[in-house]
Amino acid sequence: MISKLKDRTRLRNRTTAQTQTLAAIHYKTMSNEIFEKVESRGELILSRQIDSYRAIQNRAGLLLGTLTIFISFYPALIKDFNFGLRNVGISSFIVSTISIVLTLIVLRHKKLDEGIGEHRFEPLINENYDDYMNQSISALKTSIEANDKKLKKMNKKFNMSLYSFIFALLLSVLTIILNYIRL
Predict the structure, then answer these.
(1) 3-state SS of the chain: helix, strand, coil percent to 5?
(2) Gap between the Cα atoms of 165 and 92, Å rounded
(3) Sign of the CA dihedral running 137, 142, 143, 145
(4) Quick check: 35 and 133 in contact, CB under 8 A?
(5) Domain residues of the chain, as ranges?
(6) Residue 11: predicted pLDDT
(7) What DSSP state is assigned to residue 127?
């Protein structure tokens, strides 16, 4: 009877140790899954930021092309206007020039951060999985925060450029209409 009790105690102790080991392995697996989910979510956000950057660059290029065509033809239109309308036309031309400068600033903007750079790959080869994931997530977080600030600045400058172009366009259309009404 005593031997059966000792066997049960040993079995219970062994199962407790095995249960703790299994729980530790399960916790480790769960934390690895969480790390991987966080990293994949961060990479998704980063790729969306890069796509947004490219879209802003494309729109700025299109706006710049439209502005240059507009500015090249506009002085020929206002040369025969009377003095008052010519001054309004020149102010429209100045606003268009400001819009071009803002668009060029958007196009010359710095590149976005892309997480772990190439210079960091070599040291990470010798790291264990947890250290790699921690560094990767940290780099993604830092890149996302830095890119968010850069994208907000780019969007602000692009919107200012777009609004100034629309204002200049409306002003020039108004001057052209007023000139033809006076004739």
Answers:
(1) 90, 0, 10
(2) 9
(3) positive
(4) yes
(5) 2-182
(6) 46
(7) S
Taking the model in full, what pTM does it have? 0.70
Chain segment 91-143, per-residue pLDDT in tens = 888 888 899 898 888 888 778 777 666 666 566 667 777 777 777 778 888 88
The answer to whether the beta carbons of residues 64 and 107 sit under 8 Å apart is yes
DSSP state of 117: -
Tokens 């400058």 sit at which residue?
157
- For residue 62, is pLDDT > 50? yes
Answer yes or no: are the C-beta atoms of 159 and 61 closer than 8 Å.
no
CA-CA distance, 42 to 115, in Å (whole number)? 9
Categorise residue 116: left if φ over 0, alpha if ψ from -120 to 50, beta otherwise.
Answer: beta
- 151: tokens are 């994208």
Q: How many CB atoms lie within 10 A of CB 90?
A: 15
Contact 136, 116 (CB under 8 A): yes
State yes or no: pLDDT of 171 exceeds 70.
Answer: yes
63 neighbors 165 (Cβ within 8 angstroms): yes
Predicted confidence (pLDDT) per residue in 73-91, tens digit:
777 777 777 888 888 888 8
- Residues 178 and 81: their CA atoms lie apart, in Å, by 10
For 98, the token pair is: 């400001």
